[in-house]
Amino acid sequence: MAPLTAVKKLFHFDSPQERYQADACVISCYDARFDLVTRKFLKRRGIVTFDHVKIAGGAKSLAAPECAADRDFALRMVRTSMGLHGARLVMLVAHNECGAYGGAPAETIVADASRAASFLLSQEPALSVECYFADFDGVYRIA
Ligand SMILES: [Zn+2]
After folding, report:
1. What are phi and psi of 85, to 5 degrees?
2. How far, in Å, from the CA of 4 to the mean position of ligand 1?
3. pLDDT of 3 over the 90 cut
């Protein structure tokens, strides 16, 4: 990078410069307790390169948004991933005890993930959408 006067390098690291094809666009909550299991699960599923949309409540923004703008934002992120990185698969990873649900039972969170998948498919029928539920003992597939 050409030197910029307003920035000062603090850390050196060589990041890949090539454009990439995303194996998936992953939407999850930013709850850090489920970071490691989500990454390990994706790796196990063969998802190596992915666009990760991390927002409080994850798929809740698509299923039961607090305001319409939240749903628009989440959908726009998926469409951007499709456009920039060719994502054809969206993986929704919900999790237990999600703070965005304020103590709602797991059934509510799971139902929202399914609702989010239906909404995504109604907006982008060419997508494949998979839903998962991360619990404290592993990851479950939502039918
Ligand atoms: Zn959460």
Report:
1. -125, 15
2. 38
3. no
CA of 66 to the centre of ligand 1 (A): 15
Report the DSSP beta bridge partners of residue 142: 131
**In the structure encoding, which two tokens stand for residue 140, read together?**
């479950």
Residue 15 CA, ligand 1 centroid: distance in Å: 29
Closest to 58 measured CA to CA, from 107, 117, 3: 117
Could you give the 3-state DSSP secondary structure of residue 1? Answer: coil
> Taking the complete model, does pTM exceed 0.90, yes or no?
yes
pLDDT tens-place string over residues 43-54: 999 999 999 999
Q: Please give the distance, rounded to the nearest whole angstrom, from the Cα atom of residue 32 to the centre of ligand 1.
A: 9
**Interval between CA 118 and ligand 1 midpoint (Å):** 20
Residue 130, pLDDT > 70, answer: yes
How does residue 1 score in pLDDT terms, banded at 50, 70 and 90?
low
User: Which string of DSSP letters, residue by residue, matches 45-73?
Assistant: TT--SEEEEE-TTTTHHHHS-SSHHHHHH
For 88-99, give one letter per residue: b (16+ CB within 10 A) or e.
Answer: bbbbbbbbbebe
